[in-house]
Structure formats: C-alpha cells, structure tokens
C-alpha cells in the first residue's frame, strides 16, 4: 500500500499532445534511410503525418510550414529492433520489470502488447535520442518460447503499440537448451512438438483464419498427450502457417544451419535469425535461404562456446554475402537502444581496418532504420523517407552516426516530440549542485 | 544473444562495478604490512626499436595538444614530445603520422578481465569471493586468467595498455586489485605492472546488503553496510597499532590502507552514500581515492572537489538498478566543470574496447549544455586521470619525457566513432598493428578455434 502511494507520487512528465503538422523541409543534408548516399540540399514534404515527397533539390510542392534545415542532417527516425522498451522501469527492481515472465504456465501465448508502458522513462530517453520506432520482446522464462513481440512507436502519447503480436520469439542454442532440459536435444524436441500441436489444433478446430487464434474457437478438447496449454498451441498456429514471423535466437554456425533446415519440416515458417554471432561462417547459406538477420554488430568476444567465432565483421560479411541484415538486440542494461547509431558508426570504422568488413555509411544507417523496419514488417512504413511512409523525422546537430551528435528535433507521425526527459530535469536541477535560498527539492 | 549478454549483464554489470581516482599516493607499495612482496611482477618490456612518430596530432594526456607533432621513444621510454621542428636523431624508425593521432595508451581503471573472462562460464566466475561481506584478504591477481581473450580485444580495439583488475562488488570489502600491463603472458606475474600500488575495492549500497541479506546475515541494510565496515576498520586499527607480528591477510590489507600505501577504489552510486562514505573515511583515518560508477556525482561536485576524490564513471549507463536510477549523461561534464577529477571507466569487456568513444559522448553531452571541455582535457579522462587514481601516473598515462612508451597511434581522431587504433606500443614494443595480422595476439583459448587470428 505504502509502496503504491509512493510510486504514484513519482514525478510524471506530461507533455501536452501536439497534433501532426504539415511542413516542408528544405536545404537538408538528407538521408533517406534506404541505403542511398546522403543528399545535399534535400527536401522533405510532410502531409497528414506521412511523407509526401523526399529527395534532392527543391520540393515539388509546398505543404504547411516551411522549415529551413540550414544544411543540417535530416534522417528518418531510427528503428531499433528487439528491445525491452516499456517493459521495465528499473531492470533490477523486479516489481517494475515485466520483461522476464517466470513461473507462468504460459509461453508462446504471452503477448507483450498490453504490458508496454508508453510513459516509460526509457521510451522517452530513446525518443530524445532519435529512436522513433522499435520492436519489443520479452525474455524467455520457463519455455523456449518467449511469446509474441510488438512493434511500437516512441511518440509521446498513450498509444505506443502499433502492431501487437508482430512476431513470435523462440530461443534455441545454449539458452534454449538450458531452459528446455539442459540440452539442445530437449530444445529441438520441445520446438517440434509445439509446432505439431499447433498444426493439429488448427486442423481440428479450423482456426486458420483467426487473427488471434488464442481467442478463437469454442471447443476446448485436446488430445490427451498435449504438452502445451491450448492457449499456447493456438498462439503458434500463425507461426506454423507463416502468417506470423518466427524470430529464432541462435548464435553458433551449426545452430544456424539447424534452424534453416527447420523449413524442410515446417515449410511455411517465416524465419528471422536473431543474434547469429557466427552468421558470417554460414553467410552464403543464410543468403540462399533468404532468411533475414537481426544481429548485435559489435559482439566480438567468445562469451560462450556458441560464439567462438564472434567478430565485429559479422554484419559486414553477411551483408556482402547478400544477407538482409540489420542491427537488433538492444536488451537490458548493456546495449541501450540509443546506442544504435554508435554501433552502426563502428561498422563504418571497420572499413579502414585491413581484413575487416564493415558497411558503408549509408548501409550502416540503413541497418538501424529501413532494414530492421523491413524485417519487422514495416517496410515502406518506417525507417525510410519516401512517399507514403510515416513521418518519423529527426534533425541532428551533426553526423547521426557520430558519438558526439544528438537530435535537435524529433517527429513521430508528423508530430513534433518533446526532448525533455526525467534525466534532463535532473540535469537542470543540479547544474549548480549547492542549494540556494531553498533546498533543491523546491527547484522544479 | 539472450543467454550470454543478458547473463553477463545480470551477473556482472548488475553486480559489479567501480573505479576512481585522485590524490593517489604515488610511492610504491611499502612492505610495512608484510615481510616481502610476494607474487612479484616478472614483466619485462619486450624489445622495441627507437621510433619517431612524425606528423600526427598529439594529445599528451596532460592537457596538451600538438598539431603536426613528433614523439620520440626508445629503450621503452618517451624521449621527447614536440612540434615539427623537433630534431629526430639518426637511426630512428619513422612512422608517418600524417592525418593520424597519437595519445597515451588507454588505461581502464575498472576492469574484471581475467577474473570474469570469456567464455563467461561458471568455471570462470572468479571475481567475487562472495562468502563473507568483508574479504580484504583476497587478491584479484590470484583469479586472473591471463588467457582471457578480452585482453586482446581491449588492446586491438580500445588501445588499452594498462588496466586495473578489481574484485567484484558483492562484498563491502572485496579484496585487493591488481594493475596489469596489457601484454599477453603465460602468468599473471608476467602482466603485472611493476611496483604499482595495491588498491582495496570497497562497495557501498545495494550489492552487499542484497547478497548477504538474502542469506539472512549482516549486512541486510545500508545501515548494516556501515556497521560492518566500521567495526572491521576498528578491528584493523587495533591490529595496525600493535606489533603486526601475527600474519593476518585481511588485516594486512586494511593496515596497508591505514598506512596510506593501499588506495581505496570505492564502488558507490548515490550522492548521499558517497557523502557518508567520505565521513567514514575521516572517522577511520583513510582516504577514498576514487568513487567508481558514481552516477550521482553531479549532485555533489562541490564536495568531491573539496575532498579531492575522483569519479570513475560511464558516459551514460543508467536505470539498471535502483541506485542507478538518477544517472544522467552529463555527469562527467558536470564533474569536470566543477574542477573535480573525472575518469571514464568500463566495468565491461565490451566497453573497455570503446573508452575513447564513451569519453567523446560524455564530452558532447556537456557541450550541449554549454560546458565546453577541450579535446586535450577529455583525453586525460581515460589516460592520465586513470593513472593518477591508480597510483601509476609517475610512470604512465601521459606522453612526457622519461615515462613509459605506452602509446596509441589512431587512424583518426580518437574522439570519433570512425577511428580505431592503428598501432599500440607498450613500453616501446609494438604489441598491436592493425596493418599486420601477425601483430594480432591470439590467446591460447582461441588457438585452433573458429575465427582464430581474425579481426575482432
């Protein structure tokens, strides 16, 4: 009770919602996000929260307010894939942390969407850093299936979930093995059994067309040898049928191969590899399979026996082999979503190192914007400035991939965002730490 | 991905951390507390040619910037640092530094490499002797696995030439640190920085009370933390005031602190707790050299300046535990602006590869609120200030005549994301060369493994 009251008394930062504005940006150093080189003297036309035009030279039409970018960088908002944004306030404070369900009977049926807190400080901090959209997932707990992740926008409003149940997340490899019965054997058996149960349930109850099969159908009967709850089995129906992407966390080359061969048994699977630290060793196979990858990028330590081949050249080498690969996996406390540009910039740095394979500047930016957006089912919608896309726009005070740069203006869906966070409030309060005529607590 | 990084984060970042600097007592460790120096360093500088780095932008780490500069070193030491008119003696190998930058070797004051090495398997979990809240008797060097591949990454990507390995922060008194040269070796003695003073790692706040409170023993609260610390110090003073004849490893460490020979590296997040720790130090007669993590230093910059205590900080880690909830990215800039000492630390096997980038980030966050700290000062955040707080600034941390030739030739501005070390010298010996695959160290563990000898 007391804890509740105290929590309720915490400062809430409520910016007044602003309506989407029509505006036309001129004279921008414009990055489209699609992997093309930056454009000098570019324009962006924003109408009704969408991009009406973006490109070189003068705008083909004027819409709303004229904004002279004065040669500064203008980019699409960053799209950061695989985060835990909005699922915790303080990672180490269990009561505030929804990212790691434990002790529940449910697994694949878990859905992050209703738990995401749009007022999360971490969303505000990400937004101020130019992150305008992200995917959110929980961590696996008692099952290899972590449940269903969502696409969110980081706009300062109550409506953050753009697409619920956007993908299912399963962990194979070492972490999946630990969960399933301390062996990859157990993980693979659990995986196949789960998908078979889903197929069986779909066939018997005709749930194939249901948007959310968990909530569809009326009969509860199941075969006597079912291991999954009905709710979990139903949640996997869209996965088996290829209507919902299956994100598979694997690192080792052998585990990647095992994952790619799953489609021989389950032909409809829409696979996305997550992690793939040794992806470069099997890059040709990943490319041939047409499976996209969300990788961490700077992993270069043999942190486990499934990551012996880790190198910062992983993404560059996969990209060179024709794999669709973007950054993903900004979890927990060691890879903040707002670090995505720094990570991308580091891959550009690799170009100067003999033997290393990096990305060009434009490719690196795409790897934190349009590519993760495409992999996340938001192709043409987010992480890119082209007609029809959502007007997520960031103005920067310097090269967006440089560690010394930061956004000066951020728009989500054409709505300009406040860059104020609880951190900026603390910063302003303690700019001079000694109290004046009254204690610091009166300074707000 | 979920497995290892998250486990690492929970097991290490969440539990460990700390570093600091300032007012370090720079005489070598005395032998007052023990009859001899056991486990002595066997490190000797590797051979190096007399070398002239010519035409680079030189940051000397001590606040100087020289454009189109020249750095001369031979016999393992810096001979001269100057402008383009500096005479280059005959017989010196010239390295063209045009368009490149030279800094002192990067120093990480807060690392757990070797004690929490990769692979991060439980058999390698050697950084926290979490069996008693006070273990001043343990020495981090006895856990260091010299084959940790993390050392090589810190060298190749981070330009790290020296680092302090600290016990973790599970305990109030975690044990002695060890300062290493980042040179591959068969033994930890082969890495030990010669005659570096010891430090005692202490930890305030959440970790000790959580670890021991969960076991139903003291400390289980912050007040318990202080009570256990104070009683331990009082008992140590009794020992120190006696004849010290009966060997007692724990008391010898604490007596060394009271004598001023062993520095204090104090993991502490919150401003109010740092202020209490400073009073405890006065009460018991020791000095805190540095607070590590110190995410709330910005709230007490005046106090930290007055007390001459360094803050060893991340650029912008925040929010991962309650005592990190008020972290702000302007912390380092606000500390420096107040005239107090800043060190940028890693506490992380990945972060140690990018201390320069973290410093640049922290500098820029300051600039945006009108605090303009020049590049030549920021370089000191991960070189000279770290050396000062580790008690080795008389020998390394800056490019000054007579100091160890520990230096990095960067292929661009070290405060840019686009730059990497091109060459790294330790005591004048070329230990890494990005242009020569044979100058990439490969640890025993990685020999014969996928990716052996790869760029990392």
Automatic annotation (TrEMBL), chain A:
Domain of life according to the entry: Bacteria
Species: Croceibacterium atlanticum
UniProt-listed SUPFAM superfamilies: Composite domain of metallo-dependent hydrolases (SSF51338), Metallo-dependent hydrolases (SSF51556)
Record GO terms (molecular function): hydrolase activity, acting on carbon-nitrogen (but not peptide) bonds
Protein name: Hydroxydechloroatrazine ethylaminohydrolase
